[in-house]
Write a structure and sequence with these properties.
DUF72, UPF0759_sf, 9 strands, DUF72 domain-containing protein, about 300 residues, about 35% helix, three-stranded parallel beta sheet
């Protein structure tokens, strides 16, 4: 993921901002009983991107990937709607408890930009995506950076149309969604009233997307490492923040690890999962890093 990439990440202040004042109110109001559900994964499973991750002789990358991680952020579904049998194959190949978090097709978000012609496409997308059955996690819709608040009516219509049996997270990138307080509050309340997650994006060049405003009992976080030593300390900070949110009532954590150049995302994820296990009192499997030629904490 090159979104938010900068030439000199060492100059960026990666401090996680304080929570939005309403985040604690949301967690208190929507507090859920039971254990914390945590899913951590990468964006892709293909060998070309996840270098040094697959053992020599691996025949099926998804089968191996899903033996190491409990989820995948399915970016492939952004570029096209796959045939129904493909979703069924993905479902059959992966173990019980594994989840896909697919991105909504760009025909809806980028090409037609939530206009009145998207709804047939939405129905077609959901028809095949639902074949993932209980392995379907939260779907997320990522809007183009130039999709601004002037399109507010389109957002409202889309949110009202969306079938609520499918969990949805929405990612807005135009800076005016967050820098205009009135606009931001209207957006947050719309998502909150419809039980939709407000995606957090942690990337170097767009710190405004770290609005720290949760809108339901789900933290949907897309973390973009900068291929820099700071990638690890940034993950440490996220462990601390998620622990604080857990103590305030958060029960659903969905965290996806990217890098500007997808070289070491599985090893960043393994580091992060081990830290989460210790702090949150959970027991996610730590992905094997035996194929990494370097020590994951000294890659840079």
């Amino acid at each position: 993921m090159k979104f938010g990439k900068v030439e000199h990440p060492e100059l960026i202040d990666f401090t996680i901002p304080k929570d939005h004042p309403d985040t604690q109110l949301v967690l208190a109001k929507q507090r859920e009983e039971g254990d914390t559900s945590v899913y951590v994964g990468c964006a892709k499973w293909n060998r070309q991107d996840l270098k040094n991750f697959y053992p020599r002789g691996t025949k099926d990358e998804l089968v191996y990937y899903s033996s190491q991680f409990n989820c995948i952020e399915l970016n492939a579904s952004f570029y096209r709607i796959f045939p129904a049998e493909q979703y069924q194959k993905w479902c059959d190949k992966t173990p019980e408890g594994f989840k896909f978090f697919p991105k909504m097709t760009n025909e809806v978000s980028h090409l037609r930009r939530l206009n009145d012609k998207v709804y047939g496409t939405v129905d077609r997308y959901l028809e095949v995506t639902s074949l993932l059955k209980d392995k379907l996690g939260t779907i997320f819709l990522q809007m183009h950076s130039n999709f601004g608040p002037k399109n507010w009516d389109r957002v409202v219509r889309f949110v009202e149309y969306w079938p609520k049996e499918f969990p949805l997270a929405m990612e807005f990138r135009h800076t005016d969604w967050f820098n205009d307080e009135k606009v931001a509050q209207e957006l947050y309340h719309l998502l909150q009233e419809n039980q939709m997650a407000n995606v957090l994006v942690d990337t170097a060049g767009r710190r405004d997307l770290m609005h720290m405003r949760l809108t339901n009992n789900e933290a949907f976080i897309r973390y973009v490492g900068a291929n820099h030593a700071s990638d690890y300390s940034r993950l440490d900070d996220w462990v601390d923040r998620l622990s604080a949110w857990q103590n305030k009532g958060l029960r659903n954590i969905h965290f996806f690890v990217h890098q500007n150049l997808e070289l070491e995302s599985p090893f960043l994820s393994a580091y992060f999962i081990e830290k989460l296990n210790n702090i949150l009192g959970i027991s996610l499997k730590i992905p094997s890093t035996l194929n990494n030629p370097n020590d994951s904490q000294t890659l840079f």
